[in-house]
Design brief:
This protein is of the alpha/beta class. It is built from eleven helices and 17 strands. The radius of gyration is 24 Å and the shape is globular. The relative contact order is 0.10.
């Protein structure tokens, strides 16, 4: 069935060409022609092509650029069955989380897509497959909200992080993807609506949120400067399970006195910030809020979202805790109290096997 699809082009490797100074984005008109040539399935739909004012390498992207993309989504949302946003992979995790933070109540798919090889680079490009996956996500009418389609998988927007720069499987997620066609080989369909709210678009305001990474034996003399710059919040990238060196405790006490919310994530890409260790509990006693599995990009953009909404520090802490809880796996199911205990499986010994053989 034909769909009304809006394609928003903002740049990135997906639409780049080789120059004597390296890859750079194609012009919007050249990219539009190339996209129609490479993705023949677009001819089956009513497609509106939109390009942003700045066609850029995504390493140069800012919150202002992402707000502009959000405005394009908002402008075309009513008349579209789904939207595809082409963006570079260098900051894709930040962009997906930012776009998700701008909207509530989306009941249509807004699919973000990029690639590790340009659409020009046939046959090695992954751009065609990734775009086709985004298109199928819309035409199959299964998913809602902001999504990320890449390497045969469709991800939630606030769960991803980039961990490779030279391979098609460049992204991972802290939770299983909504769709994984690479592993299952099957057409998998889910319904996913992140928030049951009325439709709303609210651009993000940029707030100062420093991310502080600790190394062993770290004694950063500039920690105090961060507080003096009046941050909206502070994120500590701790060691292991988000553990913070004791040398930062005076800094944490001062932040607590000033009413600045402080959060902890793990510097390990798939690490969990929690109170597994006593040292973690000590920092939590000083007001640090652990955010479990939350990736760096999602953490930053969710904080921008709640600061944009002018929530007080206590409200930001409550909302971030709730966001972190969504990412944690459910606890293991407990067996009923009256259930008969399972007998452990016995492994035959070598002598027992020998006796069986003799009989």
């Amino acid at each position: 069935m034909s769909k009304n699809i809006v394609v928003i082009y903002s740049g990135g490797t997906f639409g780049m060409q080789e120059t004597d100074r390296g890859l750079r984005p194609l012009s919007p008109s050249d990219f539009k022609d190339l996209l129609g040539l490479r993705i023949r399935a677009l001819a089956d739909h009513n497609v509106t092509f939109v390009n942003t004012d700045r066609i850029i390498d995504s390493s140069q992207a800012t919150i202002s650029d992402w707000n502009k993309i959000g405005e394009y989504v908002d402008r075309h949302y009513t008349d579209a069955d789904g939207l595809i946003v082409i963006h570079g992979t260098d900051t894709m995790d930040y962009f997906c989380a930012a776009l998700d933070a701008m909207f509530t109540g989306l009941d249509k798919p807004v699919v973000c897509v990029g690639s590790m090889k340009s659409l020009i680079s046939v046959p090695e490009t992954d751009a065609i497959d990734n775009f086709q996956l985004a298109l199928n996500t819309i035409t199959e009418d299964c998913l809602r909200g902001v999504l990320f389609a890449f390497d045969g998988k469709v991800f939630q927007p606030d769960t991803i992080f980039k961990y490779k720069t030279q391979s098609h499987d460049a992204f991972r997620s802290v939770v299983p993807p909504l769709v994984d066609r690479v592993l299952s080989g099957l057409k998998t369909c889910f319904t996913f609506i992140s928030e049951q709210e009325r439709y709303r678009f609210l651009p993000l305001k940029k707030h100062y949120i420093p991310f502080i990474t600790f190394t062993p034996g770290d004694d950063d003399p500039y920690l105090q400067c961060r507080l003096d710059m009046a941050p909206g919040a502070i994120v500590l990238e701790g060691l292991g399970n988000g553990n913070i060196p004791a040398t930062a405790h005076d800094f944490l006490k001062d932040a607590q006195k000033r009413g600045i919310p402080v959060f902890a994530i793990s510097a390990a890409p798939e690490g969990v910030a929690d109170a597994t260790y006593e040292v973690g509990s000590r920092s939590h006693d000083l007001g640090v809020v652990p955010l479990g599995l939350m990736p760096r990009a999602a953490c930053l953009m969710k904080l921008q979202k709640y600061l944009t909404r002018n929530l007080p520090a206590s409200g930001i802490i409550d909302m971030m805790r709730a966001e972190a809880d969504k990412l944690m796996p459910p606890p293991p199911r407990q067996a009923p109290v009256d259930a008969a205990p399972q007998q452990p499986e016995t492994v035959p010994t070598e002598s027992a096997l020998s006796r069986r053989a003799q009989s």
